[in-house]
Amino acid sequence: MSAASPSWPKLPPRSICLIRHGETTANRDGIIAGRLDVALTDLGRQQARALQAYPWPGAIALFSSPLERAQETCRLGFPDQNFHCHPGLRERNWGRFEGAPLSELPPREGRPEGGEDWSEMITRVARAITTCCAQAQDRLPVLVCHSGVIRATRLLAGQQSSGRRPANAHPISFVWLDDSHKEIAHAL
Description:
The protein is an alpha/beta fold and 188 residues long. It is built from 5 helices and 6 strands, in the order E-H-H-E-H-E-H-E-H-E-E.
């Protein structure tokens, strides 16, 4: 995966936190979920509930992908917090590969048959993050989303690759420092 393209929108100059939803049946079974609405496993629900103990540095504004696995992670991890669904935080559409084994996952670059182009997804994610940051005002934007959204954010933050699949239900901060973002994964 290449570094940021000059044609992609820039991330806002502020810190953000992204969290991949809790483990799903598709994660457990090695299936490409994409836009499929798959359920959290019991472990995924435990992972989501563990977010309640995370020591947030101050007020947060919570956003979620519209897919149920992300919304359930929000409800379990932040039971007293309202959240807003943003369609731009949804996972990539893998087209005909959705529901197939992970071993059949096509290359990330390009457009899978019947699916979403990787570069178009990155642009979508940048716009979603920008909107969420504006709505958050002076609160930390916390986005509960998907592996693909986090991978796209890594490239938008200036990393040289989209990296490995992030852990389920672990906060990942993209901290704004000196005209760039630095990724910091947090353990629970």
